[in-house]
Amino acid sequence: MTYPPQDPFSKGPxxxxxxxxxxQQPPADGQPPxxGQPPxxGQPPxxGQPPxxGQPPxxGQPPxxGQDFPYGGNVSKNNLGLWSMILGIVSxxxxxxxxxxxxxxxxxxxxxAVAAGLANNGTMATAGIVMGWISIAFSIIxxxxxxxxxxSAFDNL
Length: 157
Hints:
The chain contains 3 helices and no strands. It is an all-alpha fold. It is 41% helix and 0% strand.
């Protein structure tokens, strides 16, 4: 059995209520009903912008990898200062001369790169140099003490 179509927006009473929505009142803020909005493509674009395909290409930007470094120049040699500091820490902890000498060498190369404007981490380089020299000094003092005692520490081995 089919019923004739009914208009859902009609103002006729339903079940003794004057609202067509079963007890809900229509919005009081003056919004139009559901069908009152314009269809999806009918609105003009915001601010008069061209559609997606019509945007002009970006201009004046360098390609990837060719970036300018406006603050501090090219910092491609910052790894020297970092490795100098890491080797300085390792030389103090366990390796002595074997890590202290490279820490001093890399720290001096990093200081030269900072002076030339190729790096900006001179403080790390200074820390690596200082820790490297301290570990070199401790290693040499340790070797002198061992030599003066006749390497007696190795007798128990």
